[in-house]
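Comment thread on ticket #2218

A.B. wrote:
> Attaching the input chain for the structure job we discussed in standup.
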Amino acid sequence: MKGSREWTIQGKESKETNDITMQLKFVYPRWGSSDIPWSAFLNKIKNTGYQGVEIDLPMDRIKKNEICSMLKDLELDFVGQHWETKEVDFTKHQEQYKRHLYNLVEATPLFVNSHTGMDFFSNAENANLIETAHEIELETGVPITHETHRSRFAFAAHVCLPYLEEYPFLKLTADLSHWCCVAESMLENQTTAVQKAIAHTYHIHARVGSAQSPQVIDPRDGNYKAELDLFTQWWGLMIKNAETNNRSHITITPEYGPPPYALYKPHTLNLQGDQWEINSFIREKILESSSTDSSK
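C.D. wrote:
> Ran it. Output below, let me know if you need it in another format.
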């Protein structure tokens, strides 16, 4: 990567000091660690060098304030995550959606990552929800992103593309593993949608998928080198896009998931891959790739 740039990665500046500072801010998901008490979980994240967490928050104000207080004490950023709204009736769905978004934005997260809409809602209904989120964003000043996730409005590349064309303000949490799984391909025949998604990426969910699953068994396995290389390339392009748009940072959640995303060894309850270890590998892979790119 040429030009006047300076990388700040995990709080450490590169040797190349120039005009623009771009920070890679890694946050860790609560997903897969909900059995760990909040204090132990957050201290583990802090001590391992992550700069924040991606979490949902309870509606109960006392419990919510306790979590927010711990985040503040540990000086951890947080990304609010909304995934709960799955009501089939659209009117009820929209009301629940608004309640969850307001519950998150009032805690002043870096932004909210939303699982928005349903794949069986009409285009007009999903568009209504996108506009609802945008109104809340404008009202509160808290950015709201929309995850490219199965079962939601952005469940597939070809379905998401028209929304990106209609709504220039749309911010994505890019997890292209879902799109690969839905399309049964590595999206080689949908480059326009992929490029458009990269241009709209605000937050990265870094998980390696394949044409047959949203998560390969273990991205450290050489059998998945082609998938790992492609996803690493996509993440690099998303980071470059953020830099080109003069963003101060981009957030990245390494998101190798627990069961049922992770698979058990046959006839046991032993997982074929350790979530924490694989997420650490993904973080290091992105750091290594970004450092290499920034020196070019």
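A.B. wrote:
> Thanks. Noting for the ticket: DSSP finds nine helices and ten strands in the chain.
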